[in-house]
Amino acid sequence: MKIDSHQHFWHYHPERHDWIGTEMQKIRRNFLPEDLYPLLEASAIDACIAVQAEESRKDTDFLLELCQAHEWILGVVGWVDLGSEDLDRALEEYSSEKKLLGFREVLQSKDPSYMLRKEFVRGIQKIGEKGYSYDLLIFPTHLEASLALIDQVPYQRFVIDHAAKPPIRDGNWKAWKKLLQPVAEREGVCCKLSGLITEANWNSWTEEELQPYLEISLELFGPKRLMFGSDWPVCLVAGDYPEVVGLIESFTDQLTPMEKESIMGGTAAAFYLI
After folding, report:
1. At CB < 8 A and 24+ separation, what contacts does 44-47 make?
2. Is the whole-model pTM more than 0.85?
3. How many Å apart are CA 212 and CA 171, to the nearest integer?
4. Burial letters for 50-68: b for 16+ Cβ neighbours within 10 Å, e otherwise?
5. In angstroms, rounded to a whole number, what is the distance separating the alpha carbons of residues 52 and 58?
6. Whether 10 contacts 17, CB under 8 Å
7. Cα–Cα distance for residue pair 54/73, rounded to 1 Å
8. Peptide bond between residue 223 and the one before it cis (omega within 30 degrees of 0)
9. Secondary structure E strands in 3-128
10. Cross-strand partners of 51
11. Which of 52, 86, 110, 177 could bridge across to 79 with cysteines, CB 3.0–4.6 Å?
């Protein structure tokens, strides 16, 4: 099964989605399952995982409703306040939601020290005890703190979104690789090949320009810990859905069929326990 491990749905609201700036005019509208399904079908992608786009339980509940209505949405990576004193109650309320696979927070907008607070680490431990995964949405500057967090909760399943957003526009892959390598040495950590075209120049990126970042990700994580994600509809600021799929399909054509299958769906299914 081919799985898009990372995409979003939203009813656009300028205040709730204030991260969508005026330069991202293409995505300042609603994006719903009826918009994505034809794209999945045309690209021979069987299913997807919906990821939170705002930090609210209302957003998590909205995604879970969509998931229940469309069997091809395999699950949800939602949001919950990990540092809240009410976390136990929130997790109890979600205990019957079998399609809730894990959680994510917009850590990239916060100081790296944020994820090392006692209450945050305790929250990660609690979701791990409940069987949930955690998506790390970070910049390279957060990788050292991420490693410290991972080492405090070594049995937690983590996945790094968008390969930690390497500085593709600058072409400085060496510093990014140096920070990413020790994280990749933790065998419980996976990585998403997603969101890369939006880290390059939106109007002039090329597959050749992205090759070093794809190759380094493969070198560090191997195919069994890499997963394809489109980051749709955010990707639309830099390219359409077939271009994003084509980029990863083309890259994985060099691999064995089993390795390609892992990146295009197998890793996501194993990581999210689908």
Report:
1. 44/2, 45/2, 45/3, 45/4, 45/245, 46/1, 46/2, 46/3, 46/72, 46/265, 47/1, 47/2, 47/3, 47/4, 47/72, 47/73, 47/74
2. yes
3. 9
4. bbbbbeeeebbbbbbebbe
5. 10
6. yes
7. 18
8. no
9. 3-7, 47-51, 73-78, 100-105
10. 77
11. 52
- Give percent of the chain with pLDDT exceeding 90: 91
How far is the C-alpha of 12 from the C-alpha of 30, rounded, in Å? 5
Instruction: Tell me the sheet residues that pair with 102.
Output: 77, 133
Q: pLDDT band for position 171 (50/70/90)? A: confident
Strands 133-136 and 73-78: unpaired
Residue 67 token pair:
């998931």
DSSP type of residue 213: H
Name residue 111's amino acid: D
Rg of the chain (C-alpha set)? 17
Domain positions in the chain are 3-271
Beta bridge pairs of residue 160: 136, 191
* Separation CA 231–CA 193 (nearest Å): 9
**Cβ–Cβ < 8 Å for 229, 20:** no
For the chain, the residue count is: 274
CATH number of 3-271: 3.20.20.140
Beta bridge partners of 3: 47
Checking if the pLDDT of 172 tops 90, the result is: no
